[in-house]
């Protein structure tokens, strides 16, 4: 066994549109609990703990998700502040990895000789033991100086994935890693089926392993507009970030480098990049249906039905995807779910809030669900976890009325503190500095009624906040 020090970089950005209407821009899929009682991010962190200790994990994310990453990560392992790296603007995977790598060096948590394993936060890997074995193999290749990617033997001709051609006929690297012959972007259906039949093509999993120094040298050689500021340190890279090209690490480095190897990953991988992928990985009933939530099916087969908030009934429906949330319903044929991007693009063009906002939001202090809203009011069900509190804040355009339905609320309005018990209510006038918290041992549940000329989520002026968020992140 080759001795090495392994750092793990988890990429937790993303626009959250491919699983619309469940995922939204403010709640990408890595934070959703689709397949277990944990989110995809939490499952990823747990999986990474199989190959590295908790202190070797780093998550790169956007400012808007920093608090949520820390909150969800806490349920698996505590992440120190330096283990959550914030990119100022999304610039695809190459700048994100560069920022994570440079941050590790600058905080002296790693050296250029150490290995960096890069993984998206929103994928599924079923076989943990096979995954760990593949990482071990990749680490051996990376210690020799190779830039290693993980390829998944394709199960079918998927057009939504990139492909990697790597064949043993060209010679096998020591230890079982394969030399990469070429990369192919998302192919046509006909080409994808040809690739599967050939036996030499693999799905590009988006996971990588390499020496930190080797990666930074490759950046300087192949994409100096990222590599040069990265060599100057975190401050220089952050200052240049808005001007950096938005490039995937595949295109920027892996497709150009000469020392690229591939490790086959046979571990039940899926990027869960579409509703079709969700259907593929979940268990089916005797009629081939995947049913999530409150659903009734009659004479229906081959369907994926997701009911987030309401009863959904299907009769005589075949091979369809039906996803229902409290504010949107999507229906599309199974096998064509990549087309949801066209729907999202059309909605964005119309300025529809359903693209970005979600009625069910998880926050560092708990969660809320929007029950009803109009131009001048909004009604929420709010749940605050024990020991948590919202920011000290005030609103310029709305008043709030809180009705406690479970637990006891600690409330500060101005300079006055009080407890509001189950069945009681309290009014917060417009412009009043206030705070709401839960000092009890059970979740606090309340109904909030907002009234005013503007009830947007960004009407928050913070005076103090436990989670250091911007106004629109309440």
What would you say this structure looks like, in words?
By secondary structure, the protein is an alpha+beta fold. It folds into 3 domains: 6-270, Spore Coat Polysaccharide Biosynthesis Protein SpsA, Chain A (Alpha-Beta Complex); 284-349, no CATH class; 364-473, Jelly Rolls (Sandwich), CATH 2.60.120. The chain has 11 helices and 27 strands. The protein has helices at residues 40-48, 66-74, 93-106, 128-143, 189-198, 212-222, 224-231, 234-240, 249-254, 275-281, 340-349; strands spanning 6-11, 57-62, 84-87, 115-120, 124-125, 147-152, 163-165, 178-179, 182-184, 201-211, 260-264, 269-270, 290-298, 304-315, 320-324, 329-333, 360-363, 366-373, 377-384, 392-394, 398-406, 409-413, 416-420, 425-428, 434-437, 444-452, 461-464. Strands 1, 2, 3, 4, 6, 7, 8, 9, 10 and 11 form a 10-stranded mixed β-sheet that branches. β22 and β23 (416-420) form a beta hairpin. α3 packs parallel to α7. It is globular, with a radius of gyration of 24 Å. The model has no long low-confidence stretch (mean pLDDT 91).
């Amino acid at each position: 066994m080759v001795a090495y020090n392994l750092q793990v970089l988890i990429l937790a950005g993303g626009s959250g549109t491919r699983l619309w209407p469940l995922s939204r821009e403010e709640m990408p899929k890595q934070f959703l609990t689709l397949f277990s009682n944990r989110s995809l991010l939490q499952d990823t962190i747990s999986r990474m703990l199989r190959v590295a200790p908790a202190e070797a994990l780093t998550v790169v994310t956007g400012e808007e998700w920093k608090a949520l990453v820390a909150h969800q990560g806490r349920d698996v392992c505590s992440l120190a502040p330096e283990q959550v790296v914030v990119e100022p603007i999304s610039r695809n995977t190459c700048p994100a990895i560069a920022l994570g790598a440079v941050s590790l060096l600058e905080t002296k948590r790693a050296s250029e000789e150490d290995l960096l394993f890069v993984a998206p936060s929103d994928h599924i890997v079923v076989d943990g033991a096979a995954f760990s074995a593949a990482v071990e193999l990749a680490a051996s290749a990376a210690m020799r100086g190779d830039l290693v990617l993980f390829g998944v033997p394709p199960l079918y001709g998927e057009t939504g994935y990139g492909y990697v051609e790597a064949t043993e006929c060209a010679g096998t690297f020591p230890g079982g890693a394969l030399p990469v012959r070429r990369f192919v972007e998302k192919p046509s259906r006909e080409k994808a089926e040809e690739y599967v039949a050939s036996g030499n093509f693999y799905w590009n999993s988006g996971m990588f392993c390499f020496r930190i120094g080797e990666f930074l040298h490759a950046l300087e050689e192949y994409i100096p507009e990222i590599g040069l500021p990265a060599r100057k340190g975190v401050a220089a890279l952050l200052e240049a970030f808005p001007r950096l090209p938005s490039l995937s690490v595949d295109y920027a480095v892996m497709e150009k480098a000469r020392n690229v190897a591939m490790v086959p990953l046979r571990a039940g991988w899926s990027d869960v990049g579409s509703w079709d992928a969700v259907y593929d990985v979940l268990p089916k009933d005797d009629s081939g249906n995947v049913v999530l939530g409150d659903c009734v099916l009659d004479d229906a087969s081959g369907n994926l039905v997701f009911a987030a908030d309401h009863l959904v009934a299907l009769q005589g429906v075949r091979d369809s995807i039906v996803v229902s949330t409290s504010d949107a319903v999507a229906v599309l044929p199974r096998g064509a779910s990549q087309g949801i991007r066209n729907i999202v693009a059309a909605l964005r063009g119309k300025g529809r809030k359903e693209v970005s906002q979600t009625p069910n939001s998880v926050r560092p202090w708990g969660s809320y669900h929007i029950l009803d809203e109009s131009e001048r009011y909004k009604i929420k069900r709010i749940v605050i976890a024990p020991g948590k509190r919202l920011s000290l804040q005030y609103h310029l355009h709305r008043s709030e009325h809180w009705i406690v339905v479970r637990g006891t609320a600690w409330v500060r309005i101005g300079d006055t503190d009080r407890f509001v018990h189950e069945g009681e209510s309290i009014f917060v006038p417009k412009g009043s500095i206030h705070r709401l918290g839960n000092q009890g041992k059970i979740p606090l549940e309340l109904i909030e009624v907002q009234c005013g000329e503007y009830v947007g989520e960004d009407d928050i002026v913070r005076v103090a906040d436990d989670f250091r968020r911007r106004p629109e992140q309440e």
